[in-house]
Amino acid sequence: MEKHINKHLLGWYKNNKRDLPWRRLQANKLPNPYYIFVSEYMLQQTTVPTVKKRFEEFIKKWPNIKKLSLISESKILNFWVGLGYYTRARNLLKAAKLIQKNYRGRIPENFEDLINLPGIGDYTAKAILGIAFNQAFIPLDANIERIISRIFAYQLPIIKIKKQLEKKSIKFISKKYSSQLIQAFMDYGSLICTPRNPKCKICLFNMNCKSYSKNLQNQIPVKNKKISKKLLKFSRAYIFNNEKNEILIRKRPSKGMLASMFEVPNDVWVNNKKDLIKDKLILNIKNKIVSKGLVKYSFTHFDLETEVFIINVKKNKFLNYRWIKQTKITKSGLPTLMKKIVAVAI
Span 100-126, mean pLDDT? Predict the structure, then answer.
């Protein structure tokens, strides 16, 4: 059965594959390993349409490992604004520096070396090796997990059947066409065996699909039941606006949420509104402080509610601080949360 499915998938992929910039083939008929390396970091927790445009911008700036390895953390963080999950950017840069130093700028071609790089786990290592080097692996992304879950009609949440999926996936591994097959699985899951309303009637292997035969395709994969509500945190943000229409910004700590990113002054985020403590910069301010409203922003594990205030000040009263013009906020390196806060104030 597995060989039958693989054969149909490869044929389908030849005529229906998505046109993605990191898939452009080299003379060896495989993608550029650096392109796959970068795209896999970007695609963690971010959709393909979002990554597609930003990937091309990234490659124009840093077309190879050597050029990427020479930049500072602040540069890659500024570029990463809008993609979220900034730890990925830091890990990508750390990995690039290690590859340049230890592997002469060449992406490692074995699992042990890859998985020891920052930000690379089992899935990413297998994706790079399988797609970029045509090695016999099958990385289990959401698309591949969904297809296998439906073929075998597993009626448990994905998180509870990881071992079964891995065991079944081994039978689908191709020694000769690994790169194409992995991408075929991914595209088939994105275009045919979709999360909602899968196109089962035109599926090439619906006769082999137990979910389809039992009419369970819309119930599989089984969703996890959400037990608790998302945590809500609170803060207050302060927009210091000077006579030149510039806004005061500073750098966040090197650890924690939005680490090392620029921010407008704000109180430490707390779980209880009553526990808010004013930021040190605001304590001695005698100027009029005006409330401009609330900003609600959602992170993966919690939501943040921030009350925004604006204060008009003289620039010479705040020496040794960094300022940014209001007109340059949208193109600045401020994370999305901070841009939303500024937008409410001005």
Answer: 96
Residues 6+ apart with CB under 8 A from 331: none
Please give the pLDDT value at position 227. 61
Cα diameter, the chain: 76
List 40, 56, 112, 246, catalytic entry: 40
Structural element, H or E, at residue 16 = helix 2-16
Omega within 30 of 0 (cis) for the link into 221: yes
Q: 11 is written with which tokens? A: 């044929």
Taken in order 10, 15, 17, 19, the sign of the CA dihedral is positive
Q: Is the pLDDT of residue 201 over 80?
A: yes
Active site includes 57?
no
Task: Write the pLDDT tens digit of every residue in 240-295.
Answer: 999 999 999 999 988 888 988 899 999 999 999 999 999 999 988 888 999 999 99
State the CB neighbour count (10 A cutoff) for residue 71.
15
All structural domains of the chain, each given as residue ranges with its CATH number in brackets, are 2-213 (1.10.340.30), 231-345 (3.90.79.10)
**pLDDT for 52:** 93
Hey, how many other C-beta atoms are within 10 angstroms of the C-beta on 114?
A: 22
